[in-house]
Amino acid sequence: MTRWEPDSRGRLEQAALALYGERGFDDTTVAKIAERAGLTERTFFRHFADKRDVLFGGAGALQDLFVDVVRNAPPTAPPIDAAMLALDAAGALLQDRRDFARQRHAIISASTELRERELIKLATLSAAVARALRDRGVREPTASLTGEVAITLFKVGFDRWVAEPEQRTLIQLMRQSFDELKAVTASG
Amino acid sequence: MTRWEPDSRGRLEQAALALYGERGFDDTTVAKIAERAGLTERTFFRHFADKRDVLFGGAGALQDLFVDVVRNAPPTAPPIDAAMLALDAAGALLQDRRDFARQRHAIISASTELRERELIKLATLSAAVARALRDRGVREPTASLTGEVAITLFKVGFDRWVAEPEQRTLIQLMRQSFDELKAVTASG
Fold it and tell me: What is the CATH number of domain A8-51?
């Protein structure tokens, strides 16, 4: 017997982020999140595996997007172009989630455990991009280097995107970071 | 009352790596390591904080080296040159530890917990390089991008260095990875 709850997932997400911000991630329980959202714990667990999943539940979809775009890039595209297409797609996916991303970033920055989890997420993304490139016939170490560059641009672009009062889009900031990366390596 | 044990640190390290390789990291105790080395647990704890420290105890010295070299690079050196000097210094420090590095790499690859710890070590190194560059007056995002590039080259070069039957030096492999990274970014 599932009662239909309008946007219960969004309400739980908002309640969770508000509580993580107010009392810290460690001191927030699922019971409190559900209470704040006016929903039951059972409803919470229909949407999220645990309280960390509110922050990291999107990682799988992001990785699938990266891999799909790299796989489906034009066969003649150089590895970095395939990776940049994936970053553009990720930027488009995330663009209207900036408020969520800002709140999430502040919460993650405040917790060693969550910062470590975020690093592991990014390293997993980098490895997935490298694997998708190898499936296109890209050799090592080019595949791994391209995966690392892509995730560096994602990370540096993302950190700028969530910093107040930044107004440029995530896509713009990742592409600008790419130009800056080229300037960095060209000077060596 | 400390009895002098000739190279007890080296013997403990060898015993630990042999046991981690044979029975896995999780199933090896400090007692077993000390026994294999013919030393006491007390001697183990004079050299290492815990059994993970045998694998990660060098991280602090490596970070200090990176930071010192970046700080002391010629004032006119571009950020990437300062970072490459740090990689050369790290390569020189590690070069005669290749057998240890190969054993260590196999052990870390076999454990999710240790792989995550290694990622965190590398991210900490990247942040330390970026901080040392900012102390030289390098602005963001150049400092962070340079730190990420340096650690990417360290990681990719290191992974090739420990792969059998690679014979080139770590310095050669990091510099070659840099040339390949430039080729990757130039094609975009």
Answer: 1.10.10.60
